[in-house]
Write the structure tokens for this entry.
Amino acid sequence: MAHILGSSLPNIPWEDRPQGLQTPVWRYSSNPVIARNGNKRANSVFNSAIVPYQGGFAGVFRCDSLSISMDLFAGFSADGLHWQINDDPIRMEGADPEIAENEFRYDARITPLDGRYYVTWCNGYHGPTIGAAWTEDFKRFHQLENAFLPFNRNGVLFPEKINGMYMMASRPSDNGHTPFGDIYISQSPDMEFWGRHRFMMGTIKGNASAWQSTKIGAGPTPIKTDEGWLMIYHGVLTSCSGYVYRTGSALLDLEKPWKVLYRTKDYIMTPDAPYERMGDVPNVVFPCAALTDADTGRIAIYYGCADTVTGLAFTTVEELVQYTKTHSC
């Protein structure tokens, strides 16, 4: 059996699998867990990051405003289900004035690392790149240098140094709604200078696994297991009516995480529920956060639905690892 190499989280949000369901991931029965009006000016709340914090939970949320500006907001919850999201966006401290001003901020991830909570997001600096900051209390945020040159999206840190180096997955892109995209790993000794770029995996062309034929991107912080790094990611198909975002999973080598051991040929989630199929951007499930409990192997996945609301889904490490291995490309 696969095991999570991590901490216990006895209060992880959880529902048992519905009877008769065969898929490795199942949805929270009261989805969406966060509605589109999450704070006073929100048009939508989606593609957000959540972590355990002080016996409850904290998060960094993408709240697009009533004017459809994209920004990040901190929020807190006692149970991971009921959230209070700040009305004012996060104000960064310590940033070089050259990068302190931004065109937009969206699609955050949070990674506990070195006793801090590191936040990465898509940051507007002459186009999209990967912004980075750290916080200890989700009140004061200290901005670091942008990790990469524009254009780049989906920057996701690994939760520990590997062979003495910080590791980040990302997807080089263009300045628009990128019609392509592969995942790379970059390394850094200090969270400022990034190099040693390595190709991890790309799209799959043709009919073999068409749901991930246009572009792919890393999702939540990778989960360390005794079988490898478990990475949940999104894949995109270009259909006759537009892009369709689905979710898959992969197992990566623990020492060289750009080496893919297994990768799902079949998706693990597809836009199926009404709140995933209908919204500001139809047909999107976009995972950004995963809570884990090492004692039970439970995993709770937070994901954006149709670029409008936030959903919650569940699986276990054993089910997802086995599915990844038995349904691999």
